[in-house]
Write a structure and sequence with these properties.
The strands form 3 sheets. Strands 7-6-5-8-9 form a 5-stranded mixed beta sheet. It has one domain: Glutaredoxin. The chain is globular. The chain is built from 8 helices and 9 strands. By secondary structure, the protein is α/β, with parallel strands linked by helices. This is Thioredoxin-like protein AAED1. Pfam families: AhpC-TSA_2. It comes from Puma concolor (Mountain lion).
Amino acid sequence: MLGAMAHLALAPVTRQVSGRAASAAVPSGPERGQPLAATVAELSVLDASGRQVPFGALFRERRVIVVFVRHFLCYICKEYVEDLAKIPKSFLQEANVTLIVIGQSSYHHIEPFCKLTGYSHEIYVDPEREIYKKLGMKRGEEIAPSGKSPHIKSNVLSGSIQSLWRAVTGPLFDFQGDPAQQGGTLILGPGNNIHFIHRDRNRLDHKPINSVLQLVGVQHVDFTSRSSVIHV
């Protein structure tokens, strides 16, 4: 078990060999300004009750920010979503935009993850990672400079210990997603047009939240305030 948990905490990182990345190339996917293929929009995500919802229905008639996260046990994802939880719903409503998080775990993990992070906006899961794949989200990690994230408070050691503890004490022992899968951020809708897309190259390559909010006219959010969420 400990070996598997170590793999979870320290997911694969792409090695550089003779100036080239040793891992396979990032799968291709749609780019900004292109319409999302109907075959992708027709794929389903699951809500917290396990109900299937067509991905395209999430943005067919509204503008949305969609954040795909790595997996729910990832401490970096947890702390990033904790900051997403701090975005006032009134700010989003003023800009006529909706915030959505999509993970890749079983839907059973949605409610505990929201309770842990204090996240109350929309959230779904893509357990088979079909949408991740179609959007060209990377699997594996590139060694690439990502800078210091304003959203991550834990260091590698303390964060990994938190992830391990949650894994072994949770009611369902699983990775809550593929540990090697990376996420990304999109701005979509209304309709199938992709207004913005960012594919994370590694676990720290997520977009600063305020830079994404600025693109849709949401006012600046102060993320320096302490969260009231209890960390376990």
